[in-house]
Amino acid sequence: MKLPLAVTVSPKNPGRYQQEARARAAEWGLTYFERAMKSPLEPMLEELADVFLVLGGDGWTVHDAKGSLFFSPGMAQVRLRRLAGTAQDEDTILRLCELKAGDSLVDCTLGLAADAIVCASVVGPTGRVLGIEASMPLAIIAREGLRALAANIEVRHGLADDVLRTLEPGSFDCVIIDPMFDEPNRASVQFETLRRFAVHEPLTHETVRLAQRVARRWVVVKGGRRGAELTRLGLPRIAVRRASPLQWARLPGGA
Ligand SMILES: C[S@@+](CC[C@H](N)C(=O)[O-])C[C@H]1O[C@@H](n2cnc3c(N)ncnc32)[C@H](O)[C@@H]1O
User: Fold this and answer.
1) Which among 7, 110, 149, 150 could disulfide-bond with 25, CB atoms 3.0 to 4.6 Å apart, if both were Cys?
2) CATH number for the domain including 35?
3) 223 C-alpha vs ligand 1 centroid, how far in Å?
4) 78 shares its domain with 164
5) Which domain holds residue 31?
């Protein structure tokens, strides 16, 4: 039977990565498939698994029949460069969270961690960022990529609700939520590829309630271009700069 997700190595120098890839597959509870030098992935995607995590010279990448995705801190770096020398207020998440050095934050929807990297750069080594990601391949490439960057971000694979339930009330300063919107508002190739590997669960009242329980200060929710998610959940919109293409909600923590 074809698997949903499996592990293999790059065909460029497979011998070099086999041992590590096999060990990581066992750690993640995934099946490892050998791959010969220069052998294509397409037949393996047809016969063995819908999605492959592949270890090679560029670290871990995730592949399906339509293409591949690798971890890149590119978007976060653009935001960090923009922030350098300007007020932190320029970044909507940082402003709405009122984030400062030493703070702690949960990112319920980590994705490829652009928001988390920006937040981690502000909270610094005395702070804490915990990222939750429901998609296993995305959680894995984010965790491995962040480790290579030595970013101070802890990654947990799972549904936000399940992980939030394990956290003590008021144990983090802020919680951020950036669900998948089924509106084509982020027409970057990388984001469109991420969509295929992402979990598309709609945001629920329960997630917001659990987030308010864990946050001491603020829960910040990104609501998409039209804010349809905010309307559906009855979350009040907060006014942000007119330049922001997205709608936002901010709720007090401590509920
Ligand atoms: C819009 S992306 C987040 C992008 C991220 N904020 C960034 O800066 O890169 C949403 C992510 O949340 C994940 N996701 C969706 N529902 C989730 C849930 N209930 N729990 C945890 N992660 C979830 C998706 O798999 C996807 O990777």
Assistant:
1) 7
2) 3.40.50.10480
3) 13
4) yes
5) 3-70
CA of 52 to the centre of ligand 1 (A): 20
- 100-131 burial code (b ≥16 CB/10 A, e <16): eeebbbbbbbbbbbbbbbbbbbbbeeebbbbb
Local structure of residue 84 (DSSP, 8 states): T
Q: Do residue 150 and residue 231 come from a single domain?
A: yes
* For range 31-37, the mean pLDDT: 96
Burial label, 85 (beta-carbon count in 10 A; 0-12, 13-18, 19+): exposed
Q: Are residues 61 and 124 in the same domain?
A: no
| Beta-strand runs (E) in 108-209 | 128-133, 153-157, 172-177
| The last residue of a domain, from among 47, 70, 93 | 70
Report the pocket of ligand 1 as residue ranges, CB < 6 Å. Answer: 108-109, 111-115, 132-135, 138, 159-160, 178-180, 198-199, 201
pLDDT at position 239 over 70:
yes
Same domain, 117 and 58: no
Say how many domains are in the chain.
Answer: 2
Ligand 1 atom having least distance to the Cα of 108: 21
* Cα(44) to centroid(ligand 1), Å: 28
User: Which of 97, 161, 199 should be mutated for ligand 1, with most atoms under 8 A from CB?
Assistant: 199
Mean predicted lDDT score pLDDT of the chain: 92
pLDDT at residue 186 greater than cutoff 60: no
Distance (angstroms) between ligand 1 centre and the Cα of 108 equals 7
